[in-house]
Amino acid sequence: MPSLRDLQIRFSDAVLATDGMAPAFARGDAATAAERMAIYRRTIRSNYRNALGATYPVLKRLLGMRLFNAAVDAYVEAEPSRSGDLNVYGDAFDDFLARYAPAAEWPWLPDVARLEWAIDQAAIAADAPPFDLAALAALPEKAHAGLRFVLHPSAQLIESHYPILHIWQVNQTDFKGPAEVDLREGGDSLLIVRGECGVDIERLNPGEAVLLGGFAAGETLALAADLATEAEPAFDLPAALRRHVANHVLAAFVAPESAIEERPR
Amino acid sequence: MTPGHALPVAAGIGLRAPHIGYVKAQRPPVAWFEVHSENYFAEGGPAIASLERIRADYPLSLHGVGLSLGSTDPLSRAHLAKLASLIARVEPALVSEHLSWSGVGGRHFNDLLPLPCTDEAVAHVCSRVAEVQDILGRVIALENVSSYVGFADSDIAEWEFVAAVVARTGCKLLLDVNNVYVNAVNHGFDAQTYLAAMPDDAVAEIHLAGFDARGPCLIDTHGARVAPEVWALYRSAIERFGARPTLIEWDVDIPEFSVLETEALAATTILESRDAIAA
Fold this sequence. Notes:
The complex is a heterodimer of chains A (265) and B (279). By secondary structure, chain A is mainly alpha-helical. Chain A has eleven helices and five strands; from the N terminus they run H-H-H-H-H-H-E-E-H-E-E-H-H-H-E-H.
């Protein structure tokens, strides 16, 4: 008798097989077994189509049901699920679409996928305690340059050569207005973050994008601010900091060690 | 917070995303709710916050769909850690999983696949249940699954398999009456024989759902009202075991909440008629 593991491997092979043959491990007549096995194949395929359709509603609209489903089927084959939590499946769909030949004529699709994945992830990211303004105010001024700001766990930054926010907006089911997007509008620097009333998507100015990107990479305030001013000479650092503390994009800060040592005991 | 140690012996409803806003705002008179554990594995955000709010007013059962308990791959410690942290957060009355497997060789199908009914599979599942109960520090309930394909190598009946696992591990049973009916039709056995083999005391919860009869066999879609044949089987299950916490499940083409309430009311009628007989 085959072992349990062996039977599971054979069952798994039969789920993936497309020849419509009856698996040898199945009880009953071959035609019925083949037909029954196909139920698993169809159910599983449809579960992934539904799951990714819920994560990527705009891609589904852009591609249309048939193309979207074909892309999901090919993705499942290329990057099978490794987790029992279907909610975390689909993280590599952007890179997959970038090399998926049938989608090659729409080069902005991978970036739209990135945006939709970021929105999905922002909704389930960890919560963060309120920003400790009093602790920041208590720091000596000479410690400011070495501060490292920490972004909210839900905050994500996306850079695209395409107007992906506009593409995303005109493909919302409740969108009203002209649905045309001119690709010459240019690229987007986006911030996706969970706010009080759900996930927000914001377009960032070049300076802000560089500043927040610097914080995300763990750079100090001094370095991130220099880079931001380089990217946008008129960059207003105090205004940007105030805004992103107020809207919970900046969740915390880490003071340089010298400042901690100097704190009164 | 409502005491977390027992589900009310009454009809509950499987709570799905489209109804969360309504339940939070309206607090409908439902005895208890059940959710899919994996849908609340998130560390933060509005979904888990809503569940905590709802939990403050209702007893809750956590129903896992992704542990792949019967797989011969190692149990996912990461999955169990997330489940343990959710349990600590919402203090459910019951934690359940499926008597099935979902993938092998690292690959997941995210579906509930059938196990062969063999002594080896019984032994394997028992060791896994023991491992899970040990890690979580609590008894879990196992649900019998629907299936379409049987194994030529099965040498005991499905009901014997289920009863053996419960007897050997001391776990509870989440008896899905719809799945018993679906399998009775699909594999050609008498559903009453199945019920008769179930260990009465272990039945901690009952599931009811709708199937799809349009295909080559009955398909357990959770996308329709409970079928009349399943209501009849449920009635005989309640006569046999006594009243038990009973859940209405609906997962695809999810209807208005009132439809689920109507189904729950039908279960309540059967539960209360049993109470009347018992009294």
